[in-house]
Structure formats: C-alpha cells, structure tokens
C-alpha cells in the first residue's frame, strides 16, 4: 500500500474508507469489514451523524485484535457550527467520545464557512451564517493547535480550502495545515492546487473519487456526468482487467494523494482497496488528463447566501 509520510515520521495509508451517507445501521459492519480487508485509514466527520456507530466498530476491531489503535488512522472533521475558539475542543471531545478514542490521528476544519453555534441542521437563512470577520479561520486554527497540545489529536488540517485560503491561513501561523481534503477525480484534476500543496509540504486527500452517486437528488445536477460509466475510464479498466472504480482510485495513487472511496458493501470495500495493485501507465494518465472539465459533484452551492458572505467559496 502506498503511504503519505508526515514530518514526524507518521505514515497514512493512501487508500481509506469514506463514511458520508453510510447509514448508521450499516456503517458498523462496513468499517469492521474494511478493517478486516486491510484498511487502516477511516475518514469520518461529526456532520455525517454516524460516528457513534463507527466507534462501536473500532472497539470491536481493537478487542478482536483485527487492528491495534497504533496502526489505525482516524480522521474526523470539525463542523461549521463549532468554529468559535471556545467551541472547538468540546466538539472534538464529542467526536472522540462517539468514536470511543482518546485521540484522533487527523482533525480537519471541514469547510472555510462558519454557522451560528446554536444552529441544528443546515442553514435556512443568511442569519444562520457567521462571517469570516466574526469568526476568522485563524481563531479556529489556534484552538485546534491547543487541542493538539493537549494530546487530543496528532495532526491538523483543513478541507475544501483553495490556494488563496491556504495562503491566507499560512500567512498567519507558524503551524501550517498538514492536509487539505478536497474533491479530486478525472473530471476535476485541480493541478494548481496539487502543485501548491505538494510544494508546500501539504498532503491532499481526494474525496468523492467515484462521483458520489448516492447523494440525495437535491444535491445532484440533472445532467450530472458519470465517472464510473465514462468510456475512457471503462476502456482503461478493460485493458488492465480491473473495474472502472479501481482505475478511478488508482489515479490518485499515481498523483501521490490519499483517496477515500465510500462503500458499505463488503465486496466493493475489498475491490476498492485492491486498487493499490493497479499500475497505471503514463499513457493511461495522459488519457485521463484529457477528461478534466473542472466538474464538481460537491459544488458548495448549499453555502450561498443572498448577502454574498460565502459567494465563490472555491475562489475560482
Ligand atoms: N471533506 C468534504 O467536504 C467531503 C468529504 N467526503 C468524504 O469522501 C468520501 C467519499 O466520497 P463520497 O461523496 O461518499 O462518494 P464516492 O465518490 O466515494 O462514491 C460513493 C458511491 O460509490 C459507490 N461505490 C463504492 N465503491 C464502488 C465500486 N467499487 N463500484 C461501484 N460503485 C461503488 C457507493 O455505493 P455502496 O456504498 O453501495 O458501495 C456510493 O454510492 C465520503 O464518504 C467522505 O468520507 C465526501 C464529500 C465531501
Ligand atoms: O463532507 C461533506 C458531505 O456532507 C456535507 C453535506 O451534507 C458536505 O457539506 C460535506 O462536504
């Protein structure tokens, strides 16, 4: 398995398991099945509403000696309601309680967007958002540093940050993020972001690598393109005698990022980690490069306000 190396010597398996939309009744078995299939890297978030069930899987796996805590890598994310300094550590402690862990391996700011702390669910009006002037990202970041000092988390990072937002944060701290988790796949290469992160010692994790087909219909565009059904991807898969999903996952290994396909199906969970064995050629990568059309499945539209507080969230 390819790994991403951190400054302190820690290593992250490049293929991890995503858990957004994994139903609480299914996710415990899914995570346990993944750990038994050799996954060591699990991607979670408070907002996915299933961390307590994932925690049960971790307990079972550790008790059954499927994996030790030291070999397991758990990422979670701070939700947008907890960006104020005083809310960060309580939110992290809730996640740790739910996951039944003493520490996280990686904690990310989920979005560069802040909601009112008392908000339940998603914003319904402009008033449900706080502006970045009211809660600057650096305030949240400093509180995360404190959590690290207290031993609650080993590594810190961000998610959905553009180059502009990374530069802004890096200009205000001596402790830059070690990870940026963003959408990446053959329809969205984000070469500039990849180059910026890699030349600044920031790892990337690719989310929605298979096109996030199980999102609710309200989140989908009518003419949404399919990665799994793409003719070029299918032809490359045929040449390698593997599935299209395995090509889509192997693409990220070739670009030295992590990738976190979501599945609750044991067969597909196994299939996805087996992508580690796929070696794409330069010619395959060239063909995949031609598919880039800057298409986002998670387009951030749900953060648009009428007052423009969070317009152009990706700065492009
Ligand atoms: N930081 C952020 O803002 C975001 C982070 N994420 C993270 O990234 C993870 C992955 O992204 P996500 O959006 O969930 O979508 P993915 O691109 O991983 O797609 C998930 C879908 O693909 C199906 N699938 C899984 N494996 C295969 C396979 N081998 N062949 C065919 N279909 C397959 C799944 O079905 P089934 O389960 O039935 O197998 C599900 O319908 C998330 O779960 C989450 O952890 C995602 C979005 C935003
Ligand atoms: O990780 C994610 C998936 O779920 C959320 C939407 O419900 C997104 O905000 C986020 O990017």
Automatic annotation (TrEMBL):
Any GO molecular function: oxidoreductase activity
PROSITE patterns referenced in this protein's UniProt entry, alphabetically: ALDOKETO_REDUCTASE_2 (PS00062)
Binding site for substrate: 110
Protein keywords: NADP, Oxidoreductase
Record-linked InterPro entries: AKR, Aldo/ket_reductase_CS, NAD(P)_OxRdtase_dom_sf, NADP_OxRdtase_dom
Pfam family, one: Aldo_ket_red
SUPFAM superfamilies noted in UniProt: NAD(P)-linked oxidoreductase (SSF51430)
Active-site residues (renumbered): 48
Site features described as Lowers pKa of active site Tyr, chain residue numbers: 77
Residue ranges constituting the NADP-dependent oxidoreductase domain according to the UniProt record: 15-292
Entry superkingdom: Bacteria
Family affiliation: Belongs to the aldo/keto reductase family.
PANTHER family tied to this protein: ALDO/KETO REDUCTASE
Name by which UniProt lists this protein: Aldo/keto reductase
Lineage of the organism: Bacteria, Pseudomonadati, Bacteroidota, Flavobacteriia, Flavobacteriales
